[in-house]
Amino acid sequence: MTWRRESSRQCSSSSTPTRRRPRPGEGELTESVEMAQHLLVAADRYGLERLKLMCEDTLIGRIDTANVAATLTLAEQHGCRGLKNACLSFLTGAPGNLQAVMASDDYKHLAVSCPSLHEAIASDLSAVLSGSHVLRIEGYTKTTELLSNGEGLASVAFAVGGRRWCLEYYPDGDDPENAGWVSLILRLHRTDAAVDVRASFEISLLGLDGNPVPSSNLASGSTCELSGGEGWGGGLVETEVLKLEGSGYLKDDAFSIRCDITVVK
């Protein structure tokens, strides 16, 4: 299946696709970030890809100026592309972020331990902003019972490239053409719907090992312009394939999707 432009439609908002815990206190937040960082290192060392993906997703949701340099260093050293892109997006997503981080000891350590990455931050980030978001769909069977073709759920908003986005999940396709498929549609969040954005997109089904499934992928191919209530997406994977025993996609009635976005200024 290929990307196509989607017109605006109503889609109910629900926490079912993505669960988000209440934000803890500042001290608890620091401890949770440090724990996730240590677990990520251990998971990479022992080849625990599922745990590594969970740690990566946790850290993506807790990036701030105090931890982004250390997190970015870990992402570079342990091959976490989604986490790396999220850190780079944060550094350029708001005025002053990069300047605030550059003064920290963690950034100085990054410059020494990852010189090529430091050079990229200094020279390239002014033109292109990239980031990733992992969406975990839980209670898949229930969603297929409650939602028919054309009915979907919207994820919580997430930030990439200085803009807010959301993913819409349709368990039986977003339109009659995609009936029998799981569809994903990417849109600008309503808070950014008034702006025009030039970007390229890729949505991938993740296997249980945390890696993208090559046969279940949607890609814009080239830079596109997205505005208003327009969306991009389509059928990602056939429902029968997703549910097939031994497929390696569905476990405990849940599966994960990764969305990679590159915004061009």
Average pLDDT value?
84
How many domains make up the coordinates? Answer: 2
Largest sheet: 7 strands, mixed
The protein's oligomeric status is: single chain
CATH homology superfamily name of the largest domain: Apoptosis, Tumor Necrosis Factor Receptor Associated Protein 2, Chain A
Beta-strand share of residues: 25-35%
Shape: globular
Alpha carbon gap, first and last residue = 28 Å
Number of strands: 12
Tell me roughly what share of residues is in helical segments. Answer: 25-40%
Structural Rg: 18 Å
CATH C-level class of the largest domain:
Mainly Beta
CATH architecture of the largest domain, by name, is Sandwich
Q: What would you call the structural class? A: alpha+beta
pLDDT < 50 runs, ≥5 residues: 7-24
Order of helices and strands: EEHHHHHHHEHEEEEEEEEHE
CATH topology of the largest domain: Apoptosis, Tumor Necrosis Factor Receptor Associated Protein 2, Chain A
Total of helices: 9
Keywords:
Potassium Channel Kv1.1, Chain A, seven-stranded mixed β-sheet, 265 residues, alpha+beta, 9 helices, five-stranded antiparallel β-sheet, Apoptosis, Tumor Necrosis Factor Receptor Associated Protein 2, Chain A, 12 strands
